């Protein structure tokens, strides 16, 4: 049982606007966000999400609840799964048993967290007030093209030159909370005794870093003149982990939804300047390399992530680290791209010189992850020599091993195979990739094997003739071949997978060669196909899809007939029944679409 104290802490950390916004298009309306209710059909929005109450409510159908309740109702998750999903998004670990922390200790922890948050909020208000009294800081921001409106949106401030300016806000300057929050630096001598204590940030433009609920958890300070470091960030604290947070994400959430993508930059000023120039969907990593946590958080916001890096060597190194962070999260329904500006430009300078429209064009022409990975692997190696091609494979191996077994990985494998004069199967076997797709497995043994006849034979003939048609078959199609019995199903699945491994370039000749090399005995059938007139590709395609659809329908009907005798609970039966009937409806719609005139 998950402790109630953990649930309360979780709901305090997640932002329901983010959670609901993953599934419902929300727009700001006063203090709340509004959208079309996902639980009933409506044309005008009656569904509201309150960031202050962390609650959703529909005035039309009455649905309401917390972030946990929304996931349960919308996604069909169980309670525990919904809690785990939310906890993962904010870096929390769900306890597997009752919470053993004594109430007094937990209360102390909560009190400490509140004290840190309060200190950061007060410091932020102080810095904002100081900016209004700092003409040199105002002149600097104006010189960077920023307006007062943008400065207010991002709550920009200024830390004055004094060593202990924060005494004006915190009369108890010795309070240990100020050190723990990263606002104050406490020097310690060789004997461990405390010596000088002073403000961490001095004479810097201040960028408050906010979590997804808008609470200030850290600061970034930029020097206005020459000096090092150019940017000074808050240290790691109980509130702030730079490997998990993204600057500007709180401010950019709605803009990301509106634009359909997020633009990831390298610095605070890039984010603020881009917002000024019409690209409010920008965020930045916080003085550290992009991490897998960053990528996970970004992909929670949108299916399209574009990394924008400066064109210098440092930008190239940052892009490589971002690529490595992205690979574990690659999926076929997400798009990740990399934008490289000319060496002398960052996003801010590029827009100022060429304009917003030119930058927008750069964004649209960003390099896909697959192309960037292959380019990184190729490097400057000599692809005309065996040694050069071997080195390319050596460099590509850890990158491909980091990827889950997706269609995109298969496409990259095919690209690498072409580049290095190999086959996709050889690449997958050499790299020992998890769940290989293209590897040429051995054909089913010949001994005592029945020869294919009837419908099975027709399927084999079609895919041998046009192997690219196999690319239109999904996993459920392959499972539907069990209709023919185990041996025939294994034969069909094996043949379809081999055809798919050839990709879009698959041809009758190439497939025949592949089949021959595996030792399977289709020589007679191949001979018949070679001698026969070329069949109509579109006609064969329609027949294949219709046949597979019919097999799927038969499999679903058989499962439906056996559902009530499968020993499942009534709840499980209900869930599976709805799944089966939904799939049947989808197949019927596909059939109707195929028959409709084009």
From TrEMBL:
<dbReference type="GO" id="GO:0000428">
    <property type="term" value="C:DNA-directed RNA polymerase complex"/>
</dbReference>
<dbReference type="InterPro" id="IPR013173">
    <property type="entry name" value="DNA_primase_DnaG_DnaB-bd_dom"/>
</dbReference>
<dbReference type="GO" id="GO:0008270">
    <property type="term" value="F:zinc ion binding"/>
</dbReference>
<keyword id="KW-0460">Magnesium</keyword>
<dbReference type="GO" id="GO:1990077">
    <property type="term" value="C:primosome complex"/>
</dbReference>
<dbReference type="Pfam" id="PF08278">
    <property type="entry name" value="DnaG_DnaB_bind"/>
</dbReference>
<keyword id="KW-0639">Primosome</keyword>
<keyword id="KW-0548">Nucleotidyltransferase</keyword>
<keyword id="KW-0479">Metal-binding</keyword>
<protein>
    <recommendedName>
        <fullName>DNA primase</fullName>
        <ecNumber>2.7.7.101</ecNumber>
    </recommendedName>
</protein>
<dbReference type="InterPro" id="IPR037068">
    <property type="entry name" value="DNA_primase_core_N_sf"/>
</dbReference>
<dbReference type="Pfam" id="PF10410">
    <property type="entry name" value="DnaB_bind"/>
</dbReference>
<dbReference type="InterPro" id="IPR019475">
    <property type="entry name" value="DNA_primase_DnaB-bd"/>
</dbReference>
<comment type="subunit">
    <text>Monomer. Interacts with DnaB.</text>
</comment>
<dbReference type="GO" id="GO:0005737">
    <property type="term" value="C:cytoplasm"/>
</dbReference>
<comment type="function">
    <text>RNA polymerase that catalyzes the synthesis of short RNA molecules used as primers for DNA polymerase during DNA replication.</text>
</comment>
<dbReference type="InterPro" id="IPR006295">
    <property type="entry name" value="DNA_primase_DnaG"/>
</dbReference>
<dbReference type="Pfam" id="PF01807">
    <property type="entry name" value="Zn_ribbon_DnaG"/>
</dbReference>
<dbReference type="InterPro" id="IPR036977">
    <property type="entry name" value="DNA_primase_Znf_CHC2"/>
</dbReference>
<keyword id="KW-0862">Zinc</keyword>
<dbReference type="GO" id="GO:0003677">
    <property type="term" value="F:DNA binding"/>
</dbReference>
<dbReference type="GO" id="GO:0003899">
    <property type="term" value="F:DNA-directed RNA polymerase activity"/>
</dbReference>
<keyword id="KW-0235">DNA replication</keyword>
<keyword id="KW-0240">DNA-directed RNA polymerase</keyword>
<comment type="similarity">
    <text>Belongs to the DnaG primase family.</text>
</comment>
<dbReference type="Pfam" id="PF13155">
    <property type="entry name" value="Toprim_2"/>
</dbReference>
<dbReference type="InterPro" id="IPR030846">
    <property type="entry name" value="DnaG_bac"/>
</dbReference>
<dbReference type="InterPro" id="IPR013264">
    <property type="entry name" value="DNAG_N"/>
</dbReference>
<dbReference type="InterPro" id="IPR006171">
    <property type="entry name" value="TOPRIM_dom"/>
</dbReference>
<dbReference type="InterPro" id="IPR034151">
    <property type="entry name" value="TOPRIM_DnaG_bac"/>
</dbReference>
<feature type="zinc finger region" description="CHC2-type">
    <location>
        <begin position="37"/>
        <end position="61"/>
    </location>
</feature>
<feature type="domain" description="Toprim">
    <location>
        <begin position="260"/>
        <end position="342"/>
    </location>
</feature>
<dbReference type="InterPro" id="IPR002694">
    <property type="entry name" value="Znf_CHC2"/>
</dbReference>
<dbReference type="GO" id="GO:0006269">
    <property type="term" value="P:DNA replication, synthesis of primer"/>
</dbReference>
<keyword id="KW-0863">Zinc-finger</keyword>
<keyword id="KW-0808">Transferase</keyword>
<dbReference type="InterPro" id="IPR050219">
    <property type="entry name" value="DnaG_primase"/>
</dbReference>
<dbReference type="Pfam" id="PF08275">
    <property type="entry name" value="DNAG_N"/>
</dbReference>
<keyword id="KW-0238">DNA-binding</keyword>
<keyword id="KW-0804">Transcription</keyword>
């Amino acid at each position: 049982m998950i402790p109630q104290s953990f649930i309360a802490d979780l709901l305090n950390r997640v932002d329901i606007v983010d959670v609901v916004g993953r599934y419902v298009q929300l727009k700001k309306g006063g203090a709340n966000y509004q959208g079309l209710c996902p639980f009933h059909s409506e044309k005008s929005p009656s569904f509201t999400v309150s960031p202050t109450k962390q609650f959703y409510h529909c005035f039309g159908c009455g649905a309401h609840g917390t972030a946990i309740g929304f996931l349960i109702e919308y996604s069909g998750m169980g309670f525990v799964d919904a809690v785990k999903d939310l906890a993962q998004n904010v870096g929390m670990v769900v306890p597997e048993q009752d919470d053993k922390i004594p109430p007094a200790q937990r209360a102390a922890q909560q009190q400490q967290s509140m004290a840190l948050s309060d200190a950061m909020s007060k410091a932020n208000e102080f810095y904002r007030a100081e900016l209004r009294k700092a003409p040199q800081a105002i002149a600097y921001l104006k010189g960077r093209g920023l307006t007062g409106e943008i400065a207010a949106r991002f709550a920009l401030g200024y830390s004055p030159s004094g060593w202990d300016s924060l005494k004006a806000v915190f009369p108890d300057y010795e309070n240990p909370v100020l050190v723990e929050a990263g606002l104050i630096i406490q020097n310690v001598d060789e004997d461990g005794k405390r010596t000088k204590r002073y403000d961490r940030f001095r004479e810097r433009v201040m960028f408050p870093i906010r979590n997804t609920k808008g609470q200030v958890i850290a600061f970034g300070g930029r020097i206005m003149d020459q000096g090092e470091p150019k940017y000074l960030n808050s240290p790691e604290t109980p509130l702030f982990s730079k490997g998990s947070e993204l600057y500007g994400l709180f401010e950019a959430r709605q803009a990301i939804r509106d634009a359909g993508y997020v633009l990831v930059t390298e610095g605070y000023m890039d984010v603020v300047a881009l917002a000024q120039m019409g690209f409010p969907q920008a965020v930045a990593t916080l003085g550290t390399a992009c991490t897998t946590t960053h990528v996970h958080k970004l992909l929670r916001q949108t299916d399209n992530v574009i990394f924008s890096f400066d064109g210098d060597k440092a930008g190239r190194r940052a892009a490589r680290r971002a690529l490595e962070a992205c690979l574990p999260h690659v999926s076929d329904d997400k798009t990740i791209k990399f934008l490289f500006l000319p060496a002398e430009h960052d996003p801010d300078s590029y827009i100022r010189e060429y304009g917003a429209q030119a930058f927008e064009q750069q964004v649209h022409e960003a390099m896909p992850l697959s192309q960037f990975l292959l380019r990184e692997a190729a490097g400057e190696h000599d692809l005309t020599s065996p040694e050069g091609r071997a080195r390319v494979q050596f460099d590509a191996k850890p990158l491909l091993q980091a990827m889950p077994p997706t269609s995109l990985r298969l496409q990259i494998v095919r690209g690498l195979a072409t580049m290095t004069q190999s086959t996709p199967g050889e690449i997958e076997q050499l790299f020992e990739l998890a769940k290989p797709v293209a590897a040429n497995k051995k054909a089913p043994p010949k001994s005592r094997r029945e020869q294919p006849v009837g419908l099975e034979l027709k399927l084999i003939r079609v895919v041998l003739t046009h192997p690219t048609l196999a690319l239109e078959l999904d996993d459920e199609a392959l499972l539907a071949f069990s209709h023919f019995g185990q041996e025939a199903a294994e034969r069909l699945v094996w043949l379809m997978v081999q055809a798919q491994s050839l990709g879009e370039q698959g041809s009758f000749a190439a497939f025949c060669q592949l089949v021959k090399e595996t030792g399977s005995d289709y020589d007679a059938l191949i001979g018949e196909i070679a001698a026969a007139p070329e069949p109509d590709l579109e006609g064969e395609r329609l027949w294949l899809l219709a046949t597979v659809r019919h097999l799927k329908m038969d499999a679903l009907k058989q499962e439906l007939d056996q559902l009530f005798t499968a020993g499942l609970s009534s709840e499980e039966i209900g869930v599976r029944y709805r799944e089966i009937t939904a799939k049947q409806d989808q197949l019927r719609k596909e059939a109707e679409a195929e028959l409709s005139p084009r």
